[in-house]
Specification:
alpha/beta; Rossmann fold; Dihydrodipicolinate Reductase, domain 2; seven-stranded parallel sheet; 9 helices; 34% helix
Length: 257
Amino acid sequence: MRVGVAGILGRVGRHLAAELAATPDDFAGGTVRARPDEAAPEGAVLFTDLASLAACAEVVIDFTHASTTEAHAAILAQAGVAWVLGTTGLSDAAQEAVARAARRIPIVQAANFSPGVTLVTELARRMAASLPADPYDAEILEMHHRQKVDAPSGTALAIGRAVAEGRGVRLPDMRDSGRDGHTGTRRTGAIGFAALRGGQIVGDHSLLFTSGEEQIVLTHRAFDRRVFALGALRAARWLEGRPPGLYGMEDVLGLTG
């Protein structure tokens, strides 16, 4: 498959370019700002707009900014190009645009393309179904590099949604984040979030189930952003020949029925 990279000079984009450079026949190139501040990755053909890249690609991997998602959805749907979407922090309108595009093209959307995180999320769902909200309190702790702009992270929210699904509730109804001051006692069934920022940590996520008698902790630590690039490339190749639809990394890994 001819793979294009939206935002090829980004943190994950450069790792994608490095992996694709090893198979140049599969590398369609990537998009950059009109006046990029950095040199292009080796072997990369650069485009200043997504439509031009889409004309040369069969699938586009996108780790850009939430503000671009609606426009990207329209461009890729119109071009009939498959989409691997790793952008997080989407608005309701942007997510609806993704859903509309999925009626015309196959899309793999994930908050995190690490196979390990995908498995952690699936385990979170199963554990939540087996550990009742009373007495097991669920808390999610995450830490990322100081440049990250959204909190909690998309991965933390995905884990939280898995916990909510396992318990048969909606995350917006049970989410508890940003505790400060005199908050009162913990609400039974709440799904708590704590976000830490500092240094250049790629991504740490822990899910804690705590009762009066025991605590179970499920932790994933990413050491290198290459893991996200490798997972996204795996998803891109999985999309070949797939019908239109909205898929997740659990589909790519064969975890769905």
